[in-house]
């Protein structure tokens, strides 16, 4: 069973929408959540002049979460992470980001080899989780690192994943926890099925909403009653449908009804459409729990 963690959040501006400094007990790392509009007031922060890694978060034109993952070494001008953030702020090709999370250490212990490894690992974890569209043009190289240092940095990454998630971005958390065989290991919910009208879709309720799993076959047609947001979602995710209308990736929805409407191509009540292996609907299960 996972142990609890003591996380300290400091509202640097006394505002939940402002800058946040985050530390974790027994971790030498430091994390800063910085709104893009607050870069100028960070110039006096010596920690942000150190070497580290950073994440630029925002949304694209389809309202999909995006992230850019980078590293920043100290340069001749003495500016580290913050200088890189200013460079991105001036770059018109990176107009999508609205806030950054910067990771460094309390003892400024990260060197060029360390940040290259961290950048590479964070990039791979974000790709694997498939929650965010990763905007890096190239796969960062891991560098040449010893096994002793790798073990130390992997522990740093474990803590960093918790911190970044706590600061509002589950960029490293898979939609569904699976083992090496692809089997669902999440204890959050059982599996549900939608099979009407030739549809053969599989879904799981999670703490984020409802996930339609890859391998699900969805309706190839849409009705006039299909909600506008479902049509947009279908257009957004058409690239992960094969020629048999089968999903090749998991998709997260806010509600079971949103997921049911997506797979059915029409307005649908997910609490009735989704059933477990015994044929019991979500609505019936919820009613049983209330008794």
Question: What can you tell me about this protein's structure?
Answer:
The protein has 291 residues and is of the alpha+beta class. The protein has two domains: 7-166, no CATH class; 191-290, no CATH class. 27% of the residues lie in helices and 21% in strands. The chain has helices at residues 81-90, 112-129, 147-166, 228-236, 256-264, 270-273, 282-290, and strands at residues 7-11, 20-24, 29-35, 52-59, 65-72, 97-105, 133-134, 191-194, 201-206, 209-212, 251-253. It has a seven-stranded mixed beta sheet with strand order 1-2-3-6-4-5-7. Helix 2 crosses helix 3. The protein is elongated and about 60 Å long. The model has no long low-confidence stretch (mean pLDDT 90). It comes from Agathobacter rectalis (strain ATCC 33656 / DSM 3377 / JCM 17463 / KCTC 5835 / VPI 0990) (Eubacterium rectale).
Please describe the structure with a list of short key phrases separated by commas or semicolons:
2 domains, 291 residues, GIY-YIG domain-containing protein
Briefly say what this structure is:
The chain has 291 residues and is an alpha+beta fold. It has seven helices and eleven strands.
Q: Which class do the helix and strand fractions yield? A: alpha+beta
Q: Radius of gyration, rounded?
A: 22 Å
Overall mean confidence score, pLDDT = 90
Count the beta strands. Answer: 11
Outline the fold blueprint.
Layout: E1 7-11, E2 20-24, E3 29-35, E4 52-59, E5 65-72, H1 81-90, E6 97-105, H2 112-129, E7 133-134, H3 147-166, E8 191-194, E9 201-206, E10 209-212, H4 228-236, E11 251-253, H5 256-264, H6 270-273, H7 282-290
Parallel strand pairs: 5-7
Antiparallel strand pairs: 1-2, 2-3, 3-6, 4-5, 4-6, 8-9, 9-10, 10-11
């Amino acid at each position: 069973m996972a142990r609890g963690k003591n996380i300290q959040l400091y509202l640097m501006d006394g505002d939940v929408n402002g800058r946040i400094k985050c530390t974790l007990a027994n971790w030498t790392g430091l994390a800063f959540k910085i709104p893009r509009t607050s870069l100028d007031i960070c110039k006096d922060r010596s920690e942000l002049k150190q070497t580290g890694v950073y994440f630029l978060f925002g949304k694209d034109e389809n309202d999909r979460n995006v992230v850019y993952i980078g590293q920043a070494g100290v340069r001749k001008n003495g500016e580290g992470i913050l200088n890189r953030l200013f460079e991105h702020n001036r770059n018109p090709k990176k107009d999508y980001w609205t806030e950054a999370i910067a990771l460094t250490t309390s003892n400024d212990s990260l060197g060029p080899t360390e940040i290259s490894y961290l950048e590479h690992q964070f990039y791979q974890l974000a790709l694997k989780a498939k929650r965010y569209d990763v905007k890096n043009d190239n796969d960062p190289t891991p560098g040449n690192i010893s096994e002793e240092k790798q073990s130390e940095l992997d522990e740093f990454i474990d803590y960093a994943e918790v911190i970044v998630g706590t600061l509002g971005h589950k960029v490293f958390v898979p939609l569904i926890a699976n083992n090496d065989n692809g089997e669902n290991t999440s204890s959050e919910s059982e599996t549900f099925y939608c099979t009407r009208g030739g549809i053969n879709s599989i879904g799981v309720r999670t703490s984020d909403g409802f996930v339609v799993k890859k391998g699900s076959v969805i309706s190839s047609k849409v009705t006039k009653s299909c909600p506008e947001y479902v049509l947009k979602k279908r257009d957004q995710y058409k690239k992960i449908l094969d020629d048999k209308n089968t999903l090749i990736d998991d998709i997260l929805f806010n509600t079971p009804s949103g997921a049911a409407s997506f797979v059915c191509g029409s307005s649908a009540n997910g609490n009735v459409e989704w059933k477990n292996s015994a044929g019991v609907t979500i609505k019936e299960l919820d009613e049983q729990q209330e008794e």
